[in-house]
Amino acid sequence: MSDLARKTAENLRKIRTSKPLIHNITNFVVMNFTANVLLATGASPVMAHAENEVEEMVGFAGALVLNIGTLTDICVKSMLKAGRRATELGKPIVLDPVGAGATALRTAAAKKILAETKVSVIRGNASEILALGDQKAAGKGVDALHSVEEAGAIAVDLARTLQTTLAITGPVDLVTDGERVVEIANGHRLMPTITGTGCAATAIIGAFLAVDPDPVSAAATALAFFGIAGKKAGVMAGGPGTFMIQLLDALYTLTPEDVQQRCLITVR
Amino acid sequence: MSDLARKTAENLRKIRTSKPLIHNITNFVVMNFTANVLLATGASPVMAHAENEVEEMVGFAGALVLNIGTLTDICVKSMLKAGRRATELGKPIVLDPVGAGATALRTAAAKKILAETKVSVIRGNASEILALGDQKAAGKGVDALHSVEEAGAIAVDLARTLQTTLAITGPVDLVTDGERVVEIANGHRLMPTITGTGCAATAIIGAFLAVDPDPVSAAATALAFFGIAGKKAGVMAGGPGTFMIQLLDALYTLTPEDVQQRCLITVR
Amino acid sequence: MSDLARKTAENLRKIRTSKPLIHNITNFVVMNFTANVLLATGASPVMAHAENEVEEMVGFAGALVLNIGTLTDICVKSMLKAGRRATELGKPIVLDPVGAGATALRTAAAKKILAETKVSVIRGNASEILALGDQKAAGKGVDALHSVEEAGAIAVDLARTLQTTLAITGPVDLVTDGERVVEIANGHRLMPTITGTGCAATAIIGAFLAVDPDPVSAAATALAFFGIAGKKAGVMAGGPGTFMIQLLDALYTLTPEDVQQRCLITVR
Predict the structure, then answer these.
(1) Among A99, A182, A229, B148, which is most buried by a count of CB atoms within 10 Å?
(2) Chains with ≥3 Cβ pairs under 8 A against A?
(3) Positions of chain A with pLDDT under 70
């Protein structure tokens, strides 16, 4: 645990020093908030989704963030192009399968991205992540699952099947590559009251992947950092509006030392 | 009046309990703010505009919000598809004809949506609403109208013609289905100083329609709730930035009891 | 200097009185923030990018803002249509070449807009602006340039070549039409910590162009006003979140008298 706490501080320090460019192809709801979250963390966000630009742009990036929140067929094409190029270049990709399992378009798009590119980390809630498995993997059905804990055993299997790292967020977050399982207990109850906290977590995982080649460690330390900022903001907030603003301030003002002391990461 | 005040509290309580899914096909300017407004109110927002997804998505929704603020021809197709499906399923639709009367594209799109789907409530300012009538209905021309009061008589006729409920917002809001006329005097002078307050009002009407089958009562109670939150936020704010943030906090922290006491609704 | 300070106050007063409509075809990241910045300043923003609507919309506008931040081929078409119509009508255009020099698509789009429309002011950072010149004009290459000061001499030449006014923003801003050179030293170190401050500066230049026919004076006074608001907000802020919100409050609450006293404009 203290290893990952130290690593959280180290990763944050590296981001603040190297200011990695994070290329986002993301949804229209959270573009502004995601860019501000990455800037406050210390990374350099770029949002670019034109099919005839994404391959060039991802060449400059330290990581690629794909988020299917307001998907269209044109977006999917751009995501696949950028993702294939990132795969060729060996650049880490993080996928946010927003709404996978809800509509056929979203589930299919997420699966296609997984099939055609090398995704380092998938970040979603339990339902979204488990929708990416086949029915056998999902076992009793996603609707019956209420917590990260219940999703844990299935997630380990699914990570092995998909050969990637899963980051399932909820009151307690779980990160697994099918071998290692890490839980992160940082966070605050106001986090789900604003739109885009999940998407922000995904983007921060992108920033951490740009400086940390181990997907499990990158995802776990990113979620610890984000949860610590959420807690700091939650204490200051009177509701979701002030929470959103205090969250940006917290991401910006937290030091590596602050973060190291507050990590609640458990290796299971 | 006290009936509608009680109804405001009751509708808010129902939203907080059932957390209805509100499907928004809305403009790019306000997507984030609208989602946060719905979350703070207690509803579950989803923003989805892909033509090959909207029919499936609206099937899960308690109401459909159509907003033509940054319209393109592709958006119009998605809105019509979602709207026709919502009509088949008997799900309430609220339309925000942003900029109707300003350009031919917008006026035509709003009229097409009205012709091909069953819209429960149209929410706009006086000019936008009256642009939906023909020239005879509009009488002396929309540019000559400066207030909800002046628009009142025309609005009653127009609601009958369009066979829907009109919600015209301004310093005093007016809701009419051509028979009943209700005025709502809640609100604050800072509300028009940020972008998307009108769009937010429309989305909240969507949330109220998901729990209240009477369009006049749903629209009037939604506008009272929103205006009460605006007043609470306005008292705390030093300008439009802090107002926007305090508005989200107010929507989240107001209780049904608070709301019932503060309603300024008059049945004319 | 005191002339431009007086002019800053005068332009702000004219915007607050005449509330010019500013037509923005801008990127999805900053649409909401840009609209709120224009409202707080006193202008009337409209965001409209549909190819079959932009010519009609720009007819109502006092200025046109073109921003290539999340460019696609469809956007470029709309920008050219709107830009050509604005040129015919003699309406001022301000261009923000976001990311010019980074990808071929963006550099080409910016150059095409410059070739086919009459742009009054281009606002960008040093790298973006210098990417618009050919290699000879750019001299030792944009990557070697670190400050507005270093870009100054090249900018004067480039303004002459492009026959437009350049507004290069940074710790000190520089405005030149190839003859006159003005520096603006207002601003705050938190300004680059949120996304869209550059885009907001561009939009405010649009509002000032709507009331001031001299592009150098319009750009310089707009940047002074924006920098003064940034400074006021920075003093109140605990990080980028609170800065963003205080910036909107400052734009709204600053009076022409406040602004006139605080201008740090130097004519070189």
Answers:
(1) A229
(2) B, C
(3) 1, 134-149
For residue A52, list chain C residues with Cβ-Cβ distance below 8 A: 73, 105
Model ipTM value: 0.94
In tens, the pLDDT along B190-226 reads 999 999 999 999 999 999 999 999 999 999 999 999 9
Q: Which residues of C touch B (CB under 8 A)?
A: 28, 31-32, 35-36, 39-40, 45-53, 56-57, 60, 244-253
DSSP codes of every residue in B175-206: EESSS-EEEE----TTGGGSTTHHHHHHHHHH
Give dist(CA A167, CA A151) in Å, integer: 11
Q: pTM, whole model, 2 decimals?
A: 0.95
Q: DSSP secondary-structure letter at C193?
A: G
Compare all CA atoms of chain C with the CA of A25 and give the residue at the minimum distance.
C70
The confidence score (pLDDT) of residue B35 equals: 98
Residues from chain A contacting residue B253 (CB–CB below 8 Å) = 238-239
Task: List the beta strands (DSSP E) in B88-144.
Answer: 93-96, 121-124
Distances from the Cα of C90 to the Cα of A70, A158, C18, C58, angstroms: 38, 61, 19, 11
Retrieve residue B143's tokens: 């540019």
**Dist. CA A93–CA A95, nearest whole Å:** 7
Select from A81, A84, A17, A11 the least CA-distant residue to A49.
A81
In contact, B78 and A105? CB cutoff 8 Å: no
B103-144 pLDDT, tens digit per residue, is: 999 999 999 999 999 999 999 999 999 999 974 444 444 444
Segment C235-263 shows an average pLDDT of 98
Q: Strands, E, within C151-245: which ranges?
A: 165-168, 173-176, 181-184
Q: Sorting pLDDT into bands at 50, 70 and 90, what band is B163?
A: very high
* CB atoms closer than 10 angstroms to residue A63: 27
Tell me the shortest Cα–Cα distance from A131 to chain C, in angstroms: 29
Counting every residue, how long is chain C? 268
3-state secondary structure A98-156: CCECCEHHHHHHHHHHHHHCCCCEEEECHHHHHCCCCHHHHCCCHHHCCCHHHHHHHHH
CB pairs under 8 A between A and B: 86
